[in-house]
Amino acid sequence: MKFNLGSLNKQKKLREMLIYCFLETTAWWLIISRFTGANPLSSLTTRTVSLMTFSLISAFLIAFIMDTNFSSNLILPIGIIGLIPIILDIEKLTFPIFGLLLLLIIGLFASCIPQLQLQNYFGLLTISLLVVAVVPITIYYGQYHYFPNALFTSFIAFWFLTAFFLEPYFTKKTQSISITSIVLLGATVVAIFFLSHIFLAFVSVILLLVSWYAKPLLLKSHWWLIIFGILQIIISFAL
Questions:
Q1: pTM (predicted TM-score)
Q2: Which of 85, 112, 135, 232 could form a disulfide with 27 if both were Cys (CB 3.0 to 4.6 A apart)?
Q3: Do the Cβ atoms of 55 and 29 come closer than 8 Å?
C-alpha cells in the first residue's frame, strides 16, 4: 500500500488552519467577554454577525499565510472576501472601525510582499500586535462605542504569546534553542504571571514550556498553531 505523503501533509495543514480559525476567533471574543463580564454575542445584530464573519475569515487568513509560507496567490482574494461583510454593514460599524479592520488585512497582505521586507523581527512584532488587538478592539468599540485603556494591559501577554508562536514563520528558525525564541518565551512567561488567575497562569506556562520544547515536532506535524489557539483561550480565562 502506498501513501501519498503530499496529500497527507495538505490534510494536516487544512486541519491546522480550520481548528486554529475556530480557536483564534473564540479567543478574540472571549477576551472581550472576560474583560467586560458580559457576552458580546448576547444580541445577534447585523453588526455582530459582520464582525463574527470577519473574525473567522481573518483567523483563517492568518493560518493560511503561515502554512503557505507567505507565498500563495489566494491570500489577497481571501482578505477581500473577509472585508465584504464589513463593507456591506459599514454604516453600522462606523468608518474608524472599518479602517482598523482594513489595517489588519493590509498588514497581513503587506507581510507577504518580499519588497517590503516584513518577514523579520519588525514584521513579527507589528503583525503580532495587529493580530492580537484589532478584532478585540473593534468588538469592544462596536458594543460600547468607546475603548478603555485598561484593555491594552491585557493585550501584553497575548502580544508576546503571538510573537512567540509566529516567530518560526517570520524568522524561519524552527529549532527550540534560539535567542529570539528564548527571549520571547521569557517575556511571555513574565507577562502571563501578571494575570489575575494564578492557577491558570501556571497551567499556561507549563503548556507553553512543553510547546517550546516540542517546537520542531509540533511545527512538522502541523499542531503548532492549534496549541497557540488553545493557549490563548486558557490565558483568556486567566484575565
A1: 0.92
A2: 232
A3: yes
